[in-house]
Amino acid sequence: MMLPLWSSASAPEVAPAASSSAQALIATLGRPAPARTAFAEARFMQILDRPLVVSGELAWLGGDQLQRRVDRPDQETAIIANGEVTQQRAGKTPRHFSLNRAPQLQVLLDSFVALLSGDAGRLQQAFDVRYTGVASGSWTLVLTPRDAAVAKSIASITIDGNGTQSRCMRMQEADGDLAIDLLGPLAATMPAQPTRESLQLLCQGVH
Amino acid sequence: MWLLVLAGLGWMVSQRLKISTDLRSFMPAPTTPDQRLLMEQVGDGPGSRLLLLAISGGHATVKDASSDAQLAALSQSLAGALRKDPRYTQVLNGSFDLAALDSSLLPYRYLLSPTLDTQPLDEAYLSDQLQQRLDDLSSPAASLLKGLLPRDPTLQMLKLAERWTPAKAPETRDGVWFSPQHEALLLVQTRAAGFDPDAQQRAIDGIQHAFHALPGNAAAQLEFSGPGYFSVVVGTQTRNQANWIGRISSVGFIVLMLLAYRSLSSLLLSALPIASAALAGIAVLTLVFPEVHGITLAFGFTLLGVAQEYPIRVLSHRRAGEDAVQSVRALWPLLLTAIASACIAYLAFYASGVNGLKQLAVFTIVGLLVAGFSTRYLLSHLLPVHVRDVADRPGLAPARAFVDRLPRPRWIPVAVALLIVLMLAVAPGSFWQNNLAALTPLPQDMLLRDARLREALGAPDVRYLLVLQAPTEQGVLALSEQLQPKLDALVARRAVDALELPSLYLPSIALQRVRQQKLPDHSTLQRELTLALQGLPFHADLFQPFLDDVETARSLTPLTPERYAQTPLGQRLAAMLVQRDGHWLGLGTVSGVHDVAALQALGENSNGSVRLLDLKAASESLVAVYRTRILQALLVASMLLVLTIALALRSLQRAWHVLAPMTLATFLVLAVERVAGIEISLFHLVALILAGGLGLHYALFFERDTGDLAEQRRTLHATIVCVLSALLVFGMLGWATIPVLRAIGLTVSLGVAFHFCLSILMAPHAAHRSSDPAAKD
Question: Fewest beta carbons less than 10 Å away: which of B72, B108, B208, B316?
């Protein structure tokens, strides 16, 4: 008699419980602006035989401002502010375009700023959030864009982390292209010739 | 019976009447090529068909990223809706839309883009370009370019798109143009001519309708600017003011008539000649002209006000018990003189050669004749048998006595003439108002908003056009290509912000052929590409669509303006290439002129094939020519008038007593307005003519030699009723805030007052006659 009652009463709490642990996690990820982190990105594209690798620094400047500075192989800085992207490359005139036309950046902004500001509400506004954690302290957040226009080009973002540290960000594009960013100390471990599989293992902390 | 005829006429009019609203038919016929171009540009030029739109949030001053995004979404959906509507030839909101380009046209990029003029499609160039694309792919812009790459690795399409966006583009936020005041900006080019208020109204309604159908429009506001919008605003404002003024003065007029004649039937009957006049006037117009202009009707009804005098005279001059037909017959010679002279004055309009004024002349002359003759032959039979003689009206006799006691010094004409000369000499400012725009003024805040939006959008100046002339279309395009480097130099040294020539959109066939010949054949390009791809991670067969496009481009028939006209940018070019008298003109738009002389210098040594057209100067010269013609016509009309009056009165001296006060009063009005700082416009001239017609009547009747005291009292009564009704109607117009209405109202009111006073003071005959019998009594 007691058991079914107990289970029926607690069943609805399962989902909020999961979400609240995601919220608790996200809250621990917050950093005061400006927050900077090294990154190394490998982009696997169908039109290319091998991935493009760049590395540099991602910085949240506060508010909705994000800076993506690439140091290797060539210097390039992209700043997102006020819905506009300004792209600057050494020796060239800066290029401006709308954030609307770069959905990759839109989701980068939404996820990165929400994570760095520890704002779970914002994250859940832009994405459907799925959280899995294991006892050892490593966790994975899978973010699926809620905006249909964004979802048309970005299928999902997966963030892997350990404790209060994000290790990795994988952006799966709808057309099959994939960008994997190694974050923080992990950035230095980017292999010279990365493959999807080797990076996936790195992200999940399997050595 | 009369009413039946009127009803029949009314029916015919309603069947045939087609009202046009194109303001250009009220402008003079252009004579020089520049003036003709001006007339077309005023209505059809690319600048005049441009509507500037601004969408702002409820709290536009608060800088808020999310409201910007909403405004941007509204801008996008509005542009999307309007692009499907045939009423708009071009809709720009800052978003780059590759879909606007027909895919079959894409290979033409190699013929349209200037890149390959200096840059062969060889290994070095391709290799550099591919390396840049690789950089692009690792940058945030990757998703923008990914899809374009296989077909267009050198991004020629983007280069063309950049070339075709307005040179001084506003700030882009969330993908669309924004002003610094956080309004989403759009440029809409209408198919309808700018100075056709009705068509513009429909275009604006269409935009409003599309906007209100959008979700989330309630929180936002849509504002308009631009010549077409202004023509709608001015039209509506004028109509509104004319309407309320008309209503008030109609009520006043009815009250005045009831007070003056104390008979409802007289009032109703006296309306018949005017109604007949108006209907007959319109009926004749519909027979003679295919379209009747709205302004003709508005002015026409104003000018017909003179005809109201005819029934008034008949009513006032009727003695108690006198048969109406007898009474009218006695007045008829004088009335006929008045009608004939007014018709002669209005003939001046016909001679002006302006279509709208010709219509006005036909309307008023027919109207006056009908009003006069219907008063004489129809009204006289309908008037009630028993009337009160207005001569016995209390207060009228003392008034007449007062008028008669007034001194009639002989020096009055000389003094007035001297005064006029003096006032004209010291009057400030320029005598003539040459600026057409000054007559259709807009609220200051509207002008400021227009300037602000125009600045933000980098919309072309409506004042200057660079005109290129050649025997053929291709000649114009070639000339435009030759000129381009010089213009680039001018832009570089900031003589002008931006210049757009037709060749920017479409190069000449010759140039397209040259570019075609520079394109490598399939195997050559394949070889160069393979070399360029060495060491790069691109898939080997990725660029097959590129190879195909270049191969297609090699054998394309060059784009002609006809073919180009079917593309989304076709209207833009069509507006810049016009055929005229067997040759072709290219119209280059100019934005932000800082150094006019440098632009004019472009035309030197070109034998007239290149010139800078100053639309403002052309319009001013047009107005000046127009005025000269009206003045000449007036001169002829006044000579005819002198002749008519002299013949009718059979005495030069009597003619002098009629014409001198009229002439002096006319010039006095002119002088007073000039001293008050008013510059004289065409509308003042029209109003002066109307006042002159009224003044002529006063003078004719005051001068009339009857020797009968009662009759003189009746004359005074009739004249006072006429003066009061004219002052009522036109005095009200003088309160209008619209300069056209105010010009007419003020001028006619002043005129009526001066004419009345001077015709009394300069009518010595009446004074002698009326004082002599009084002394004998």
Answer: B208
Measured distance CA(B193)–CA(B226) in Å, rounded: 12
Task: Examine the domain organization and report whether B270 and B155 are in the same domain.
Answer: no
Residue type, A134: V
Task: Evaluate if residue A166 carries a pLDDT over 60.
Answer: yes
Binning pLDDT at 50, 70 and 90, where does residue A7 land? very low
Domain that holds residue B137: 99-164+516-558
Q: Which of residues 44-63 of A touch B (CB under 8 A)?
A: 45, 47-50, 52-54
Arithmetic mean of pLDDT, B365-380: 87
The CATH number covering residue A165 comes to 2.50.20.10
- pLDDT tens-place string over residues A43-60: 999 888 889 999 999 888
Out of B350, B373, B388, a domain closes at: B388
User: Do B586 and B476 meet the contact criterion of CB atoms below 8 Å apart?
Assistant: yes
Whether the per-residue pLDDT at B704 is higher than 90: the answer is: no
Residue B87, in any domain of the structure: no
- Is A13 contained in some domain? no
In a shared domain, residues B267 and B384: yes
pLDDT over threshold 80, residue B134: yes
Flag whether A14 is in a domain: no
Q: Which of A84, A104, A105 is the closest to B173 by Cβ? A: A84
CA B510 to chain centre: 41
Please check whether residue B740 is in contact with residue B383, taking contact to mean a CB–CB distance below 8 angstroms. no
Residue A133's DSSP bridge partners are: A139
Residue B482, domain member (yes or no): no
Question: Residue B593 to residues B169, B187, B402, B498, B597: CA-CA distances in angstroms?
Answer: 16, 21, 65, 8, 10
Instruction: Quote the CA–CA distance of B83 and B315 in Å, as a whole number.
Output: 63
Question: Do the domain assignments include residue B141?
Answer: yes
Q: Count of CB atoms within 10 A of residue B359's CB?
A: 28
Which of B388, B418, B452 is at the close of a domain? B388
Cβ–Cβ of A78/B140 closer than 8 Å?
yes
Using only C-alpha atoms, what is the Rg of chain A?
18
Which residues, listed in sequence order, are joined to residue A41 by a DSSP beta bridge? A54, A181
Distance CA A96, CA A88 (A): 9
Locate B555 and state its tokens. Answer: 């054998």
In-domain check, residue A159: yes
Q: Which long-range contacts (CB under 8 A, 24 or more apart) does B735-742 make?
A: B735/B245, B736/B241, B736/B242, B736/B245, B737/B241, B738/B234, B738/B237, B738/B238, B738/B241, B738/B441, B739/B438, B739/B439, B739/B440, B739/B441, B739/B683, B740/B238, B740/B439, B740/B440, B740/B683, B741/B238, B741/B241, B741/B242, B741/B245
Are B181 and B457 a contacting pair, CB within 8 Å?
no
At residue B773, the pLDDT reads 41
Specify the number of domains making up chain A. 1
Chain A interface mutation, best of B96, B132, B139, highest count of A Cβ atoms under 10 Å: B139
Q: Label residue B106 left, alpha or beta by phi (over 0 means left) and psi (-120 to 50 means alpha).
A: alpha
Residue A18 lies in a domain: no
Q: Which chain B residue is nearest to residue A55, measuring alpha carbons?
A: B138
Q: In the predicted model, is pLDDT for residue A162 greater than 80? A: yes
The domain total for chain B is 2
pLDDT for residue B619 is more than 80: no
Q: How confident is the model at residue A55, as a pLDDT?
A: 92
Please determine, for residue A169, whether its predicted confidence score (pLDDT) is greater than 60.
yes
- Which SS3 state, helix, strand or coil, does residue B319 take? coil
What residues of A are in contact with residue B72 (Cβ under 8 Å)? 83, 100
Residue B66 lies in a domain: no
Chain B nearest CA to A89, separation (Å): 10
Query: What is the residue range of A101's domain?
Result: 32-203
Per residue in B260-275, pLDDT tens? 877 777 778 878 888 8
- Tens of pLDDT, residue by residue over B502-541, are 888 889 999 999 999 988 998 998 999 899 888 888 888 8
